[in-house]
Prior knowledge:
The protein has 255 residues and is α+β, with helices and mostly antiparallel strands. Helices cover 15% and strands 35% of the residues.
Amino acid sequence: MTTIGRFLEFSVRTTDILESLQFYKTLGFVELEIGDMWSHKYAVVSDGELNIGLHDREFDAPALTFVQQDLAKHGRSMTDRGVNFSYMQLDEDSFNELRFADRDGHAIAMLEARTFHASDESERDSLLGSWLELTLPVRDALHAAQFWAPIAPTLLEMREDPTVHMRFDADGAPLGLSESIALDGPSLSFRCADRDALMGSLEHHGMRFEKFPGFEGAFVAVKAPEGTMLYAFEEDFLGEAYEVDESGDVSDFPG
């Protein structure tokens, strides 16, 4: 099995961190205390499960970022298994980082250590509700799943209609692979317990949103200042569950 570490954050690029911070705080996210690993401007917001890293720097973004101890060793092992890294920073005097992409070009980053501190204050849902998944648009979900299954061997849910959608546990991150044409890029999905409160807050604060945006099951899409799309579903929104074997073999998946 390929090990890329524990999920740390959904990393996004922004030239106005304060604007993005205000947006997420208005929705009920909490700003976390950051470390001193990065030289660029950086902030993190969290709802206790999902951490969103706001970076004022150039990089392949958005990115799914993981922490892996002994990063150099794992990087060499992954290279031997055919992983092509787009960026490698591995030396004793730097904060080590690796970057590569999945079959659909979605960016993945691996760091040698955490870059922020968790807080008990963040352990509550935002107005969007509980985090459902980090959703990646894919051309072919089964083909994409063959890349992700060794990394995230637990298949949580799958549905085939109206479009194929598979959801995995990527070591701390619920990861959705969706063939929906409504998605333009990696997005964040939530189950919302209080639809009226969310819609009232969006309207009150003049946030950019679209009702029933076409992403199957979502009743609203909200766009963050840096471009991140956030989708809210009804609290009882569920898919059909399937089992996956320990090897992560997706060759016998339905469809």
